[in-house]
Amino acid sequence: MWSALALYVPTMSGDSIKDSNDKPFSFTNICTYVPITLDLEELNYDIWRELFQACCVGFGVNTHLKDASPTIPYEEWLKLDSLVKLWIFGSIHKSLVQMVVKLGMTTHDLWKSLENLFRDNKDVRAMQLDHDLRSIEIDDLYVSDYYYKIKVLSYLLSNIDQAVPEKNLVMYMVNGFGDKFDQVASIIRHQNPIPKFLQARSMLLLEETRLVRSRSFCCNAPFLVRI
């Protein structure tokens, strides 16, 4: 019985193995699967890593990220390893290429170099971004631009595992108003619970519109001549 069942155990033929190894060569544009560029300024390593690993798993070459030891005939392994390296080069900023590339490195070496580079910069960048966020001021910015600036800083912090609570974002936003929106700032500070970040933005946009209309009315009002 067991010998009969053994006839039905699937095995990979030489052609099947070859087809499996050829699969990664079926596309040339890594941006199709990893639509972001790894950049130190963007601090987008975790997102990039997740997308790139998913791509490698899908094409059966994830072992090249984890280990530098050939698991198939060396020439075939070298071709695949070189291909995955090209994928990495094609999805990182050119400044990073100059920082991490060394002669003769494998995909695994390159992968670890990128990881170490971003991990080493993580704490320093977190402190810098946190300071920028806490000290942000609206100055002459429009509310929409001010909101966007805060969101970018918050996004960068979340990329390095330093997510900012929404309540804190609202307070940082309010603290940067100065005298420009003092009335709205007072309302937001005394609301319980504190409004959501988007709600606070909407309140500011309404106040900004009111102030613009008020200034426009004053400028266009007719002069009154006293006789």
Please outline what is shown here.
This protein has helices spanning 2-6, 14-22, 45-58, 63-66, 74-89, 94-100, 107-134, 143-159, 166-175, 182-190, 197-220. The protein has 227 residues and is mainly α. The termini are far apart.
State the main characteristics.
mainly alpha; 227 residues; disordered N terminus; disordered C terminus; 0% strand
Structural write-up:
This protein is mainly alpha-helical and 227 residues long. It has eleven helices and no strands. The chain has helices at 2-6, 14-22, 45-58, 63-66, 74-89, 94-100, 107-134, 143-159, 166-175, 182-190, 197-220. The longest helix has 28 residues, at 107-134. Mean pLDDT is 81; it is low at 1-19 and 221-227.
The number of distinct β-strands equals 0
> What overall form do the CA principal axes indicate?
elongated
Average pLDDT for all residues = 81
Structural category is mainly alpha
**Major sheet:** none
